[in-house]
Amino acid sequence: MTTLGIQRESLLNNPLLQKSELGRPLKRCFTLPPDGFTYGRPNLYTGNGAAGALCSWNVVRPSAATQPQERDFVKLNKMAVQAGLTSAPEQYQFRATHDVKVSSASKDRSLNKLKKIPPSMVFGVPTRPSTPVFDLLAHKYQEKWIEERRRAEEALRAKQDQKKRVGRDIYETRASLLRKHQPQVDGTPLWHMKKFEKISPKLETFRTSEAKTQAFKHHGSDSTSRKGVFGHGLYETAKT
Length: 240
What we know:
- By secondary structure, this protein is mainly α.
- Helix content is 40%, strand content 0%.
- The protein has a domain at 135-165.
- It has helices spanning 9-12, 50-54, 73-82, 88-97, 104-116, 133-137, 140-168, 174-180, 209-222.
- InterPro entries: CFAP77.
């Protein structure tokens, strides 16, 4: 069977072009290890077996074959730089004449890091929490914001009241009250002509007493249909 063209990697990883396989979830374009990959943490071999269990774990471990130690290139590079060797040929010659092995302490440290991982450790990306739709529909966030604002205003009001109370609790004496007292100063009187100083104010707007009586009588009869306290407002509409 021949295929026309070559599929690009971008086409294979495009989620819009992928189709879900039967009985398998749809891929999300994450690069995963091959099928033969084993997930989990490797088991650390302690060297104790059936012989150790029968002898109460006090057994002489067989001497393992000495493995060749690896060179510590980090320390070699540091020593070369401290000696003033920066070029590649100089560092190559320095490594030929100097040798530093990886200490067993660093290996034990890496093993201890693996031992410190708890067995219930979960690896991966945490699941994103679902959106609280009920809280959005019930306006919980609005109520929470209003409650926070109310508490902040109450705290500010209590702080202001405390400041006022501190000033009010100070004992006042007569000397302090007299020191704060400011006597009221009367303003200068208005100017009047001398011939009108001894005459009481009097103003008469009606020409005769009869005109005054008729005006008050008309106001008394007309104020019943007007608005206002004294009957000077607009005419009210008829009420049923």
